[in-house]
Design goal:
- This protein has five helices and four strands; from the N terminus they run E-H-E-H-E-H-E-H-H.
- It has a four-stranded parallel sheet, with helices on both faces.
- It has a single domain, classed as Response regulator (Rossmann fold).
- By secondary structure, the chain is an alpha/beta fold.
- Helix content is about 40%, strand content about 15%.
């Protein structure tokens, strides 16, 4: 099983969008049983809060149920539980490396699509459609990476 943790600052926008869209994609590919997928935050600001309404609107369009999702914080103990920690921007990657006490399994999402760009935080930009496009690019790149590695 491939265990994937998507991570952003608050776990209510980007990482949540990535978690649910990635899960939906692998299930539609018939690979859902090969993955354990979750998301978390590097900060404590939103812990226990539900999905941001902008991300909720995106997920609603795809018919994806996120009703039980509550923001959680990444912990050092997660280092042993997951194979990939995928951050949305440079600050996430730095904070993930500190929390996990290692950068061995830490990646920036868009690096899988050949880019050094960050996924802009729609909490600040208000542009959930741009975030959706970038998350989809990241998913495509990550799946390609896993195929090239012979993992799927």
């Amino acid at each position: 099983m491939i265990r994937v943790m998507f991570v952003c600052h608050g776990n209510i926008c980007r990482s949540t969008m990535a978690e649910f869209l990635f899960r939906d994609r692998v299930e539609k590919m018939g690979l859902g049983d090969k993955f354990y997928i979750a998301s978390s935050a590097t900060s404590r600001e939103e812990i226990g809060n539900g999905v941001h309404y902008g991300t909720a609107r995106v997920l609603d369009r795809f018919g994806i149920d996120y009703s039980k999702k509550k923001a959680v914080q990444l912990t050092k103990a997660d280092a042993e539980r997951y194979d990939y920690f995928i951050g949305m921007d440079d600050a996430n990657v730095r904070n993930m490396t500190k929390i996990l006490a290692s950068g061995d399994k830490v990646f920036k999402f868009l690096e899988f699509s050949g880019s050094t760009a960050s996924i802009a935080d729609p909490w600040y930009t208000g542009n959930f459609e741009e975030t959706l496009r970038d998350v989809e690019k990241g998913i495509d790149g990550f799946l390609k990476h896993l195929k090239e590695e012979g993992k799927i």
